Batch of 4 targets.
Target 1
Amino acid sequence: MTHIVSESCIRCKYTDCVDVCPVDCFREGPNMLVIDPDECIDCAVCIPECPVNAIYAEEDVPADQLQFIKINAELSRAAGWKSITKRKAALPDADEWKDKTDKLSELVR
C-alpha cells in the first residue's frame, strides 16, 4: 500500500509533509504535491503534518477522491514533477483555497 495526496492540496501546496518523509517520496507540481507510490514506504508520518488533511492511506481514500490514486501515480512520473525534500512556503493564496472543495479543474499538470 501507499499514501496519496488528495484534492485538498490543489492550490494550497503546503509542504509540512515533505520535512518528515524519510524516503523523499513527494513530487512537486505547479499547484499541488503528489506521492510517488513506488517510493512511499507507508509509514504514515506525513498524514498528521498536512494542515488541510489532504493525505490518506490508499485503503482509506474517500470514495469521492479515488481518482487521486491514479493522479498521484501518473503525476509522480510526469516531466517537471520533481522530488521535493524541504519545506517551503505554501502558495500565496493557499489560505483562500484551503477550505474549498471541487478543485480538480484547478489542477495544473
Target 2
Amino acid sequence: MSEHRPPQPAEAPRRTAMGRPEPVTIEVDGRPVPAHPGESLATALLAAGERAVGATRGGARRGPYCNMGICFECVVTVDDVPCQRSCLIRVRAGMRVRTAVPR
C-alpha cells in the first residue's frame, strides 16, 4: 500500500527579526526605563513591568485596556502635561512619565 501525503504548501519565506531602533531611556515615576523610540508609551510601560498606570477612586488599579485611544484607562502625565493617553504617545528619549499608581 502506498502512503498518501496531502499536497504540501510551498516553503514559506523566512521571517527576519523586526528591525527596531536602539533603546533610549525614559523616566517613569522617577526611575529610568529602557524603551524603543516610536513604540507606544503604553507598550513601553507594559514591557517594563508596569501593569497599572492609575487607580480608581476606590483604589482599584487600572491599566491599558483598548490600546487605541478610546477608553482613557491608560492616562498618564508626560513631561508635566496631564491626561495623556499612553497608547497614543510615541516614546522619545528623555521623556518624563508620571503614573497615578499609589506606591
Target 3
Amino acid sequence: MSECLFCKIARKEIPSAIVYEDDTLLAFKDIFPQAPVHLLIIPKTHCEGLGDLTPEAEAAAARVPHLAAKLAAEHGIQTSGWRLISNCGADGGQTVFHLHFHLLGGKPLGGKLCQ
C-alpha cells in the first residue's frame, strides 16, 4: 500500500532509526517509546495484521520471535526480561494497520496489559 506509514518506512521514504534489516523484516525504534527499549518489527510486505496474513507475511512473521530474542540480547534486556506484542484491530490498540510487533523492555513492565 503506497500510503501506509510503515510501507513508507520500509521503502525509506520516511526516515527511521533502523536497528535491523534483511530482505523481509525491518526493525526500528518507536518514535513514542513506552519503555527504555521500544522497537517495532515489521514485515516489509504489507499486511494489515495477524488476521490478514498472506503467505509472504506469514513467512516473515514466523521469523519475528527469533529476531526479537536477538534484538533483546543486543539491547541488553535478554536477561532482565522483555515483552513482544502485536496489537490487532482498533479495539486491540492497533493504530497503524500494517502488521507490526512491539519489543519492549529495559524496565519492569508489570502484569497489567490493559486498563
Target 4
Amino acid sequence: MSRAGFYLARTLRREAPLSALSVTRADLFAELDGKRVALVGNARSLAERDEGFEIDAADLVIRINRAPMPASRTHGRRTDWLALATSIGAEDLQRIGASRILWMSHKRKRLPWSVATSPGFYLHPLGDWVALRDRLGAPPTTGAMMIDLLAASGLASLRLHGFDFFASLSLTGSRRADQVPHDFAAEKAFVERLMTEDDRVSQAGV
C-alpha cells in the first residue's frame, strides 16, 4: 500500500486495507506459543520495586504505550513488543527498540504510517476491542486489551508487572482515575478473575 492509500484508508475508516498491513492473529500466537511473557504496565508503584531482573529474564517482554523505563533495577532493559494505543515519537520508538509493534486502539485515525509499515506490525481487530469494552462496561486500557489477547494464546506463563489499576497513577501522566475513560475497578476484577481461572497468569508485587 502506498502512503497516500494508507492515509485515505485511515481517513475513511476502511478496515480491510489497514488489516492487510497486519500479521494475522495466528502468526502472533505462533510466536507466543510456549513462551514465558512479562507484560510491563506503567504504574508509578513499579518504580519502588526491584522487578527489573525478573522482567528481563522472561522469554518475551512486552511494554505499553510510551514504555517508561526509569531504572533497569525496577523496570528492566529489554522490550521485544510494544503495545500502542497512542501517538509516539520517533525518539521514543528508537529508545524502546521493540521488534514488533501492536496497535491496540480502535482509533484508526491515530495510527501512524511508520507504525503500520513496521516489521511484524499487528492491528488489533475492532471486534475484539468492542467485545472487551462490553465486558468491562467501559473502554479498555491498553493493558487490559493485552492481557485479554495474551491469555487467549498458548503462552506458558504471563507475569504482570506495574499493574495496580491506577492506585498510584501512571508514570506517563498526571491524570487521576476520574479523568480518564476507563473503569479500573472493573479491570481489576477482570484480572483477578482471570488469575483464579488460569494458573498461567500471575501478578508481581502482590
